[in-house]
Design brief:
The protein has five helices and six strands. It is α+β, with helices and mostly antiparallel strands. Strands 1, 2, 3, 4, 5 and 6 form a six-stranded antiparallel sheet that branches. α1 crosses α2 and α1 runs parallel beside α4. The termini are far apart. Bound molecules: 2-acetamido-2-deoxy-beta-D-glucopyranose (4 copies).
């Protein structure tokens, strides 16, 4: 389930990629120019962001070294701990060495924004991925109903037709005398999946038969699991994604990231 979160995070990798446009980091490190940045007072600012995101995506699969932003496809997460508490299912799962691929297949379906106040930033991005695959190691322990479970092994998850919306809110802050936007709110508003295929070894520690049954069960009822886990996925999305996007927003002054005027 963790992969859903990764998908969502990755979409913001793309947003960063765009914003990295032609900027200069403090300290004088020049960021390569990838395209004209969208101007905040452009009547169709959101449309400009949508096009730019979509067009620049293929250029950023290897990340942005100048901004210390790592590769996006495959996207790598070394370790992530997720707690679940959804009534009958509770516990925790530690994911390690997770690689997620397919993120470059993203379609930006819509962008809505409010950048009219220079000290306030709000944007929603709707996205679609035809197919995303995550692989890695996991270690889980928890309770399903009254049944304690423990598992440790490898997993891979393939999600088809993933759609969702990310919502960002930021406020102006001064850093070294220059206005930056600090993202305070970074949410996965909605997320839907067309189909999900889960593979994992050793879901029930040391019991191959039960592990196979558990896997079959999860594949059959993945929609229910997804619903139950969504709040946790959203929490993880915020926890990993917000510092990640601020790494960009706090490094590049706002007027360079998204200039206020048309040239
Ligand atoms: C805004 O830009 C988008 C993306 O380029 C385009 O599809 C849309 O027609 C534009 N809207 C207006 C009002 O120009
Ligand atoms: C780059 O990012 C990595 C991982 O987030 C971090 O450990 C490292 O300190 C960062 N390096 C710089 C120069 O910011
Ligand atoms: C998941 O792992 C299984 C077992 O190693 C493998 O047969 C399958 O092809 C993998 N699926 C993906 C999408 O990598
Ligand atoms: C994904 O969506 C397409 C277009 O709506 C549909 O044809 C396809 O069957 C879907 N695939 C899955 C695995 O849900």
């Amino acid at each position: 389930m963790n992969k859903l979160m990764l998908i969502a995070i990755a979409i913001f990798g793309f947003a960063f990629a765009y914003f990295a446009n032609a900027a200069v980091i403090k300290g004088g490190i020049v960021i390569p120019t990838y395209a004209e940045p969208c101007k905040r007072n452009d009547k169709n600012f959101s449309g400009c962001i949508k096009n730019t995101l979509q067009n620049l995506l293929p250029k950023f699969s290897n990340g942005i070294p100048e901004l210390n932003i790592s590769a996006l496809d495959p996207f790598f997460l070394d370790e992530y701990l997720l707690h679940y508490d959804a009534g009958d299912i509770s516990g925790k799962c530690l994911y390690k060495n997770v690689y997620t691929s397919g993120l470059m297949g993203v379609k930006i379906t819509d962008v809505r924004s409010d950048v009219s106040d220079p000290d306030y930033f709000e944007m929603e991005i709707d996205f679609y991925f035809p197919k995303v695959i995550s692989t890695g190691n996991y270690k889980a322990e928890g309770i399903i109903g009254n049944f304690p479970v423990q598992g440790k092994g490898i997993f891979n998850v393939t999600a088809f037709n993933v759609t969702g919306t990310t919502h960002l809110i930021g406020h102006g802050v001064e850093i070294d005398g220059e206005k930056h936007i600090k993202i305070s709110d970074f949410r996965l508003k909605e997320q839907e999946i067309g189909d999900l295929k889960i593979f994992a070894t050793n879901l029930i520690n040391g019991n191959p038969e039960l592990s196979q049954m558990a896997l079959t069960f999860m594949n059959q009822f993945w929609r229910i699991f997804h619903q139950l886990m969504l709040p946790n996925i959203q929490e993880g999305f915020e926890k990993v994604g917000r510092p990640f996007i601020n790494q960009l927003f706090l490094q590049i002054p706002y007027d360079q990231l998204l200039p206020p005027n048309r040239k």
